[in-house]
Amino acid sequence: MRASFWLQKWKSNEIAFHRHKANPLLVHHFEELHVEPGSRMFLPLCGKTRDIAWLLEKGYRVAGAELSKMAIEQLFAGLEMTPEVSDLGDLNHYSTENIDLFVGDIFHLSPKMLGPVDAIYDRAALVALPVEMRDRYTTHLMEITNKALQLLVTYEYDQNLMDGPPFSISSKEINQHYGDSYDLTLIASKEVPGGLKGICAAQECFWLLTNGRR
Q: Is residue 17 in a domain?
């Protein structure tokens, strides 16, 4: 899937994936991570998610990666903050107190650029990627975060009824990507009200990935 696909989505405001409130699964199950306020959370492909505002309100520091400059500018406008912007070559770094957001291709983000991460919240990254990109993405994510603890949102539905994104990702596939590095626990699963995009029945799943470092 080309970067131009997502950039066009933001340009044309075709962002039905954006939620105007924090994800209820995050709100209800975040404590499963057992990370203290002040810890640094990384959100890959974060868009302008309201989950960032929720995490900040709870006293966490936030880092994120996002392809769309427009999304990040709208995010800071919503937070009523003016970031400092610096050029990191292939990426731009938008920062304010407790926030570091990197705009550009996430595969250009290095561990040194990102800095230490206490936990990952993958709300919309893995499910946004076609199957041929997921191995590369999950390998890169573990590399840049030193296999930090993770909360992962996925969807399960009949992929024959609807094309992604978001793509359907089975528990078997999650195990293929992460089973060698994490203990995997499905902590919640709920039916998507009205079906996914109003087309087909789907389950939204919330996974906890731990590795003995809690």
A: no
Q: How far is Cα 149 from Cα 213, in angstroms, rounded to an integer?
A: 8
**95 token code pair:** 């920062």
Question: What's the number of CA atoms in the CB half-sphere (13 Å) around residue 20?
Answer: 1
Name residue, tokens 């957001």: 101
CA–CA gap between residue 106 and residue 57 (Å, rounded): 26
- Rounded Cα gap, residues 8 and 195, in angstroms: 25
Rounded distance between C-alpha atoms, residue 162 and residue 99, angstroms: 36
Query: pLDDT tens digits, residue range 92-150?
Result: 999 999 999 999 999 999 999 999 999 999 998 999 999 999 999 999 999 999 999 99
- Model confidence pLDDT, tens digit, residues 16-62: 544 568 999 999 999 999 999 999 999 999 999 999 999 999 999 99
- 154 lies in which domain range? 3-12+23-210
- On whether residue 162 sits in a domain, the answer given is yes
Beta-sheet pairing, 61-66 with 99-103? parallel
CATH number, domain of 108, equals 3.40.50.150
**Beta-ladder partners of 84:** 95
pTM of this prediction?
0.91
CB atoms within 10 A of CB 72: 23
